[in-house]
Specification:
Elements: H1 3-12, H2 14-23, H3 148-179
Length: 180
């Protein structure tokens, strides 16, 4: 099935799409670059689907199954993702500004280089979450749990800042030595 045929089915009827997925378990779902802004995709089965650089701005993905999905570079601004399962998903470089990921499962997901400004991750599970170079500004982590990935990212950033300070001090000392 072509990307456009899959998009049309998803936009027409999520239940029909989910039934098709059950009947075609081995078929790859490639929605690369799909225009799904504002789409009602509540409870869609998009497990292992490719949604790289897809536009899902303002879409409703509440309770959707996105385990193992690839959403690299996707636009997920203002997207409703309440209780979505993103276990093992790749969201590298995705824009999740103002997205609602409350009660989501992000275990083993990658949000490397992702943007999460004003995102809500209340009661979100984050075990082994990768946040390398992610932009996390004013993110609500109230009651988030299994923060092993977050703790590692914070520790790495602190070590990076310490190294930067040490390098700056060494440069200043070297410049001062050159003056004398």
């Amino acid at each position: 099935m072509t990307t456009q045929e899959l998009v049309d089915m998803l936009l027409r009827d999520v239940d029909e799409f989910n039934e098709w997925r059950m009947d075609h378990e081995t078929e790859k779902v490639d929605l690369t670059g799909a225009q799904l802004a504002g789409a009602q995709l509540k409870c869609a089965n998009l497990a292992n689907a490719t949604l790289s650089v897809a536009n899902l701005t303002g879409a409703n993905l509440a309770c959707a199954k996105l385990t193992g999905a690839t959403l690299a570079g996707a636009q997920l601004v203002d997207t409703e993702m309440f209780a979505v399962d993103l276990t093992g998903a790749n969201l590298t470089g995705a824009n999740l500004d103002s997205a609602n990921l409350d009660s989501a499962n992000l275990t083993g997901a990658s949000l490397a280089n992702a943007k999460l400004t004003k995102a809500s991750l209340v009661r979100t599970r984050m075990g082994a979450l990768r946040l390398t170079a992610a932009q996390c500004v004013r993110v609500d982590l109230t009651m988030a749990y299994d923060l092993t990935g977050v703790a590692a990212a914070v520790a790495a950033r602190q070590a990076e800042k310490k190294l930067d300070l040490e390098l700056k001090k060494a440069e200043e000392d070297a410049a001062e030595d050159m003056l004398f």
